[in-house]
Predict the 3D structure of the following.
Amino acid sequence: MSNGINASHGKTIAELVIPSKTWSLHPEKKPAFTSIDEAIDYFADNNEPLYIKVPFVDEEDNVLVHVNSSGEDVVFTISDLNHGGESRVDASHLKNLSSTVVELIEQCYDEKKSPETM
């Protein structure tokens, strides 16, 4: 599965991101999930990629991190012409999602912008 999200990966990501006061989890081209149950229901019928919206510290701007599954890995991608990059994490390490995404953003933006933490 390289274009979508595995339901168990999505559930874990939802459990970590949705309670956050700063980050939000979105299905492709749709509003953010408002509850973990809503996300789990969505994953039962869909395997589309997800997006994590991460705001920058002291800025109105944010970055969208594309999330999909590739086998047992979860792939985080920033598709920006000037600041693109990718990080892969084994599903067993998804609990470290926050540090993985923050590191990816910092690398892509040459540490010139600081992402908000979860």
Notes: The CA atoms of residues 72 and 105 lie 22 Å apart. DSSP finds three helices and five strands in the chain. The mean pLDDT is 91. The longest helix spans residues 97-108.
